[in-house]
Amino acid sequence: MSALTIDHVSKSFDSVQAVNNLNLDIPEGAVFGLLGPNGAGKTTTIRMIMDIIIPDQGNIQIFGKPNSQEMRDQIGYLPEERGLYRKMKVRDILTFLAEMKGINGNESKKRIELWLERLDLQEWGDKKIEELSRGMQQKLQFIGTIIHEPRLIILDEPFTGLDPVNTDMIKDIILELNSKGTTIIFSTHLMEQVEKICKSICLINNGEAVLKGELKSIKKDFSKHAIRIAFEGKADFLDDAKLISAYDQKDSYYDVQLAEGVSTQQIIQSAVKHVQVSHFEILEPSLHDIFIETVTTSEGE
Fold first, then answer.
1. Closest CA to 3 of 239, 184, 149, 128
2. What pLDDT digit, counting tens, does each position of 29-65 carry?
3. Contacts by 128-132 with C-beta closer than 8 Å and gap 24+?
4. b/e burial code for range 95-105 (CB count within 10 A of at least 16 → b)
5. Handedness of CA 44, 48, 53, 55 (dihedral sign)
6. Is 136 helix (H, G, I), strand (E, B) or coil?
7. What are the CA-CA distances from residue 120 to residues 90, 123, 156, 165 (Å)?
8. Does residue 83 register a pLDDT over 80?
9. For residues 130 and 137, what is the distance between their CA atoms, to the nearest angstrom?
10. Res. 109: pLDDT tops 80
């Protein structure tokens, strides 16, 4: 079953086309990255899913049913902007958010204490929101997003304000929830986190999907057919133009561009005849590089 289906959805604001004929089909249980530069249409798309903004055209389905309040109650949404009442106390705001999703009484208290302890906020439970640091507020808002145990979680820049330790903590919880069947839609500018978490992505630019699919397949398609090698001995074998089109020495290793039609197996066979190889890896492009290349190309079209 699809957790979320976006079918030919468009939205404009006056003369600005924020989202243009967008199609997405995210299967249940996926960890999906919704990516794009500032102003690409990501947040507009998320707000249409949450019915904060109404699409000009197209349809949105949640778990195979038309978008409705009943279906949106199965979603946990963490917006990029903080939406906490600064004068309320931590436990009070979580109780309020839980009650809004139908979680009351002892069950609400149990879940609140569990998550406060899990995210190292228990001693801050009776403090006002305004007394919390930026990172603490982000963790608190994350708890509010998942307190009702939603089937689908949409996270818009979830690591804002978090240090590396707390970033890893939230990342581990996201993966834990996904392992229990929760679908995750993840929007961020932190490409290294997307690579660690997401299996599939959609890159939006100027309101349109310019790249989407499984991350593994996308990386393969963008591969530059290159290797990294470290060795002891002379580098003369790298001058064989039949095997190698270019190479670049970086400290103790070489980045090598293979000639057209040459396999990595041919390179390693040639290398071991001439040098003692200590390191060999096939280079794949980073998601950051793919992001930049795709956005730059789409801007030029």
1. 184
2. 999 999 988 888 999 999 999 999 999 999 999 999 9
3. 128/86, 128/87, 128/88, 128/89, 128/90, 129/84, 129/85, 129/86, 129/87, 129/88, 129/89, 129/90, 129/93, 130/86, 130/87, 132/90
4. bebbeebebee
5. positive
6. helix
7. 13, 8, 22, 12
8. no
9. 9
10. yes
Helix axes 164-179, 134-146, angle to 10 degrees: 10
The encoded tokens of residue 93 equal 């705001």
Tell me which long-range contacts 237-241 makes (C-beta under 8 A, separation of at least 24): 237/270, 237/271, 237/273, 237/274, 237/275, 240/270
- Contact status, residue 221 vs residue 289, Cβ threshold 8 Å: no
The per-residue pLDDT for 292 is 86
Rounded Cα–Cα distance for residues 292 and 268 (Å): 31
What's the pLDDT score for residue 301?
55
Contact predicate 48/19, CB 8 Å: yes
Nearest to 46 by CA among 162, 154, 142, 147: 154
CA angle 98, 125, 151 (to 5 degrees): 30
Report the alpha-carbon distance of residue 26 to residue 9 in Å, rounded.
Answer: 15
Kindly report the number of other CB atoms within 10 A of residue 297's CB atom.
12
The confidence band for 155, taking pLDDT boundaries of 50, 70 and 90, is very high
Say which residues have a Cβ less than 8 Å from residue 80's Cβ, sequence separation at least 6. Answer: 43, 156, 157, 160
